[in-house]
Amino acid sequence: MSTARIQQLKTDLFAAPREISLERALLYTESYQQTEGEPTIIRRAKATANVLDQVAIAIRKNELIAGNRTVKPRAGIVSPEMDPYWIAEELDTIHRRPQDNFKISPEDKKIYREQLLAYWQDRSMKDFINGRIPEEIKQASAQKIFSINQTDKGQGHIIIDYQRLLTRGLRKLIDELDTLAATQPENHFFQAVAILLKASARHIGRYEALARHEAQQQELLGKFNRAHELQRIADISAKIAFEAPQNFYEACQLFWYMNIILQYESNASSLSLGRFDQYMLPFYQASLDTGESKESLQELLESLWIKMNDIVLLRSTNSAKFFAGFPTGYTILLGGLNKTGHSAVNPLSSVCLEAYQSVRLPQPNLGVRVNELIDRPFLQKAAETIRMGTGIPQIFNDEVVVPAFLNRGVSLEDARDYSVVGCVELSIPGKTYGLHDIAMFNLLKVMELVLKRNKSNPQVSYEGLVAEIEADIRKYVELMVKGANICDIGHRDWAPVPLLSSFISDCIENAKDITEGGSRYNFSGVQGIGIANLSDSLYALRQYVFEEKRMAYTDFIAMLESNFEKPDGDKVRARLINRYSKYGNDVDEVDMIGTDLLGLFCKEVETYDNPRGGSFTPGSYTVSAHVPLGEVVGATPDGRYAGEQLADGGLSPMLGQDQLGPTAVLKSVSKLDNYLLSNGSLLNAKFSPGTLQGQQGINKLCDFLHAFMKLKIQHIQFNVLNSETLKKAQENPEDYAGLVVRVAGYSAFFVELSREIQDDIIRRTSHEL
Amino acid sequence: MNCESSQIISSTLMGQSSQLEKRGRIFNIQRYSLNDGQGIRTVVFFKGCPLSCPWCSNPESRAFDVQLVKKQSRCIHCRECVLDRHDLSMDDKIEECPSGALEYLGKDMTVQEVLEEVEKDSVFYRTSGGGVTLSGGEVMAQAEFAIALAKELRTFGYPIAIETTGQCHLRHLLSIGKLCDEVLYDFKIMEAKRAKAVTGIDLSRVLSNFTALLEAGIKVIPRLPLIPGQTTDVLNVTRVLAFLEPFDIQEIHLLPFHQYGAGKYDNLNMAYAYSDVPTPSSDEIAAIKRWVESEGYRVVIGG
What's this model's pTM, rounded to 2 decimal places? Predict the structure, then answer.
């Protein structure tokens, strides 16, 4: 149970509606206007330094960890230097858009148009990228075959080397960079890093001054406890502005300041946190050793967890559809393996889960790395947290991820050190600039175009269609890669991130920014989406049209184009949905279609290189993108209506189509070559709470996870059904057709029970949670 | 990749083809079952039962015949139902029903076919200590098939459990009992005349078969369905406990009555005598649990 302070911090976070703050953009622009003619990387460093020196700062009521990106909680900040246009277009609607809305005042709208848009128009990164993208890529993108991401904001999707920051401290880093800058005066990168490291120390110094000032005020008010706390924040800030931290409080504070500072520099999603339990352990242990109580350390940790929900990313309406609900990407993976391949679970791993159980907010997005060596008590703790039903922690499988990285040329030690950026994108912390979210490829859209193109082809055959789909995947992957590489260069030329780069190996040794290829590992990650619907569709098409010859191909396509509105359309659709096996039920004939086509996509993707000397890597996940990617695809042979969502997750079966329970789902997913998906994949599994009851339920979930490890699936996330989801199942039985009620010696599908019995189960379920 | 299971089975078991070709009537094979023995299991439900317990939650398990059923929840109400088409055979009608609402309950499967199906989840059995549970209906009403299946399962090394009412020949029960890791054995009404009248069960046979299993050193877990007005009264529970007293039994499963079977009676056009009977409250269940525990047993609710 969390303390009163934690409860209050949590409540305050959501007390007021979200607003847009123009402050960072104005300060950034102010500096940029004064540095015309200087190299871009220096201009960017000076602009960020100007923000760090001038931006209004605040310490929130009763908080223990200082550092806020905006004075008001959860404000969105704009970065017109990347793309000034989308926000200009949405100024009048952003307060009432359906997903992730923000308030903005009329005065700010005016300022935005007159000062920010006026300056950045024709000067932004977006202008550069748009100017370079050739017509054929624009066309494919307009047809929604693929989308190129991060053309309007920072790349993010990276984990810095926290150990470098925490064990060395800012002074040593500043000295090192000063020396490098002095000995290599022609290198702008070193100069830029030095500017920003010094500005970082000054920024922390501003918090020291603010904390001292507020401490005095509190003392005058007679609030001595709070005055003491603020004094402590001031003392810690004074120290870590230059020195390396020596205990958990100091380490958490420096950790958080640097996260805020990096946000100002990039304004990007997913400056992720890596293996927090590993690099923080020495500090946690040091605090325990000096007699601090476990409870006080947990309160600090919970404070930190809350702060991670204070940063939200302002996305365009379109982007917010793909990444709904602020997946800010403060992702952490716990446990896993150490450099020598032994279990890396430590006491802090469990404490991190306990802090989550208490705070229960979406950030940090905790995950647990599992492997055959995992300690049972820690696995049980993960299972208990899963049982709470919030989808956290997600689970990653070392048994497949480590070899997947070896296959990409990553060293064994580095592969064992992997973590996750964003949602599920696999990355080597502190050593990778992976553009993990640079593009999404809609495999189902490719199929739709091929099917329609052959509508009047008298020689049409199943094999011919598949061959054409394969050829189109190749063709569009090539275009997507071209587009991604243009975006890559756009970031290199317009948006270097020197401070971030200084914490990524081997940028200092290579004397280059990450955007120029300074990092040790340089991937570009692209997602193949829609494999479940593609497998289901091709299987149903083959059976219905080519094997059983129930309808001529031309008529079948006309039926799809009519969205099943022709005579007997409902019967045709019912048969397509119900009478042909679907991915997710452990049926080889269907599953292997996906294995072949996703495999082809992966093999094609990995042949391409990016401008940083790295290669492209395939992944398969959606966050909320299965909804907008479904919106652009017409009716498909799996019985899906036009515009209906695709299967969620990335590798999950289509909604309602997994009829045999979670073991069969895992078996289907295991037939895909999951080693190839080295950019990450996502599987959502649905569990009813009844299956997780008691110690026995926890152990069975642990055993289930051991089977998951053996099946070499990368990722799984559990949605524990609650009374709300079951009510949805009552309203939309089609979507929940596979939901089985499991009682000893009995079996039935939930949707086939009478309304009264369903209601009874719903009552029991809400009771169980 | 896990798609070679069938080849493995047929090549390793050549020469035993007659056993593998034995046929039984199955109405469901349910994967990821957690309440029918240790670990993660697959339950093979046998069709047909000599008893007629009026509270049965699997009414489709009772008849030995394959039955035709129209599942209302799946039906999309076509203008012309395939059932009304006289030009079609029953098999064709089922094939032509677009929604799959029309289906046969019960399917004849060979031992080999059942093995292929249960082998699909073998990785889950291995990590959880689970395996295969034979259930019904009454498994032992198809004793020969059940024994052949259990023998083959044994060779895979999975733990096997069987759920039975003990209403069968002792010879069969002993031979399958020896092949199984545990026998989940139902006790119901403990008064012979009423037991016969309500469920059709021969109580003395159930009790003597139980005794014989224990004497043969087979692990048996007694299970008591908690049926209001039938099995939960003080006298009945006392009788169960008194009967078990002399045996070396550690664990008892209590299976609370539930109404999840109600909709199935409608689909089958069968009368359901227990439609208005309330399920036992959690207090009632807890009271019986405490009582049984006070007699020194470990109690599992729901199995």
Answer: 0.93
